[in-house]
Amino acid sequence: MSSDSCPGAAEHSGLLKLYSAMFYAGSSFVITVVNKTVLTSFRFPSYMCLGIGQMLATLVVLYAAKMSKRVQFQDFDRSIPFKIFPLPLLFIGNHITGLASTKKLSLPMFTVLRKFTILMTMTLEVYILRKTFPKRLVYSVVTVVLGAMVAACSDLAFDLEAYSFILLNDAFTAASGVYTKQKLDTEGLGKYGVLFYNALIIVIPTFLASALTGDLQQAVTFQDWVEVTFIFCFLMSCFMGFVLMYSIVLCSYYNSALTTTVVGAIKNVAVAYIGIFVGGDYLFSWTNFLGLSICMSGGLMYSYLTFIDKPPGSNAGGSPQLKIQT
After folding, report:
1. pLDDT: which is higher, 122 or 302
2. Could you tell me which residue, 1 or 274, shows the higher pLDDT?
3. Which of 68, 159, 178, 275 is surrounded by the fewest CB atoms within 10 Å?
4. Could you tell me the pLDDT band of residue 270, with boundaries at 50, 70 and 90?
């Protein structure tokens, strides 16, 4: 494995695209459940410290792999921050708001509101990457958003702070996906350099922020550090944080930022319905369940159109396209 520039998506085989997408879906599902267990079931008070643990796991794994010559990426120099900017800011925003919203929202509502990431990613790809999309694919996105709005407005556990965190998380995720795809072409970085230097640049500011806000003190004095089950779940979350970040980069490398977002939507179908029965913090109502189902239906339709149809940027076949002029 090397840090070679990312070739065009067309150069990758269909199996690589499919396997990378399945790897991301599985990783995202597992870490959502594990994080929910640590932050909600065990009531661990510091989502920032959990994020620090995930960054440290990323650094340790990739540094060990680099030293053993299993992976290659550019050594650190003064050009690295300029090459990788603004990814560190987007990654830390995505990380912190994601963990905060996981702690404060039930799993079904978390996954429903995450659907807004699809619309945000599509918009950013139109404006930043100058892509076009078939109108029927855009209609499926509208269905997803409509279902999310229905479910959200009937959420019996409405929390303004939690909703703010999740919508910020959507924006950070969308921007991270689009800019990650761009940075994979940067000479000397590649998949592993993007992961390693993102974690390296943001881990120290995150640690300082945690210490200054008292978040670190709450984590240190947490009473369940003596519980083997909690320690296992915490370490699993740290390791899965690395696996998730790697799977996101890998899926974007072989596919696109939008495809990565779509795969997340597919995964959310399973998470949302399982979360109704697991976790104990979902308050059932028929309106909420209807909105959830509309959202899931739109997500499946969107996924079908994305994986079966021609690439969104293609104008072949005369399919109606949406193009926003800027």
Report:
1. 122
2. 274
3. 68
4. low
Return the HEC string of the chain: CCCCCCCCHHHCCHHHHHHHHHHHHHHHHHHHHHHHHHHHHCCCCCHHHHHHHHHHHHHHHHHHHHHCCCCCCCCCCCCHHHHHCCHHHHHHHHHHHHHHHHHHCCHHHHHHHCCHHHHHHHHHHHHCCCCCEEHHHHHHHHHHHHHHHHHHHCCCCCCHHHHHHHHHHHHHHHHHHHHHHHHCCCCCCHHHHHHHHHHHHHHHHHHHHHHHCCHHHHHHCCHHHHCHHHHHHHHHHHHHHHHHHHHHHHHHHHCCHHHHHHHHHHHHHHHHHHHHHCCCCCCCCHHHHHHHHHHHHHHHHHHHHHHHCCCCCCCHHHCCEECCCC
**pLDDT-derived band of residue 6, with 50, 70 and 90 as boundaries?**
very low
Counting beta carbons within 10 angstroms of the beta carbon of residue 221, is it exposed (0 to 12), middle (13 to 18) or buried (19 or more)?
Answer: exposed
- Residue-wise pLDDT for 197-220, tens only, equals 888 888 888 888 888 888 888 899
Assessment of whether the complete model's pTM goes beyond 0.85: no
For residue 228, give Cα distances in angstroms to 134, 223, 260, 266. 51, 12, 35, 33
The CB density around residue 185, as the number of other CB atoms within 10 Å, is: 12
The tokens for 250 are: 């890998």
Q: What is the pLDDT of residues 66-91, one digit of tens each?
A: 999 888 888 888 888 888 888 888 87
Burial of 121 (0-12, 13-18, 19+ CB in 10 A): buried
